[in-house]
Amino acid sequence: MADADPPALNIQPENNLRAEQPPAALQTPQMKQDTVLPFMKSILNQTAHTPEEEHQIQQINSAKLLIEQYYNEKIADMDPTGRRATKYELEELDDRIQSTLGLEVNKKGAIERAGDADLEFEAEICKLAFDGQRAAATAITSLATGDFESATQWMLTSHHYDRIIAGKTQQRREQALVPDIFKGLLGPNVGVSEVLGQKSKDKLKEQAKTAKLIEQPKELQTITPKS
User: Fold this and answer.
1) Number of domains making up the chain
2) Helix H segments across 85-147?
3) pTM of the entire predicted model
4) Which domain holds residue 85?
């Protein structure tokens, strides 16, 4: 009796294992059936990325992510001509430029030249462009010394200046092109597309009402005789 017990114990787990597995006929449709049509397989194989392409895509996506984190804005939502910098933002960039070391484009600073546009505006744009050049030159210096992280940061700074310049010049163009009745609606965060839309019409109505309310006390003063 003692010799018969071990075989009986060994057979029982094997029977249980077989009971848990589905028959082979049931496995075939679920595990081996391929519903992808041959022509789709061919196209998928043609459009599949190689490992090298996948690596490049990852690298490009990392650059996009860096830009989005820098501006706290999605690349898809960025307007190349719509960067309206705040006073704090400009001061922060100026402090960053003052910390540049090494190669500089022009130690004497920007040369003043008169043009057709407003002199104050030209001087502001000239300074921004000059500081942008300094940032780009510092990026080149960082690359030459092997400091790739610093070079990337200075490239972002230079890009930031370019966006601000584009935003300011775009704002000037809008001021020149928009009819006088709409110019009062333009602002740092309001462009032509917003001005000429339905919201701008509502704002014009509000401005007209406000102007009328302001004029009413003046009319009463002229009508009411002085005692």
Assistant:
1) 1
2) 87-98, 119-144
3) 0.52
4) 79-106+113-204
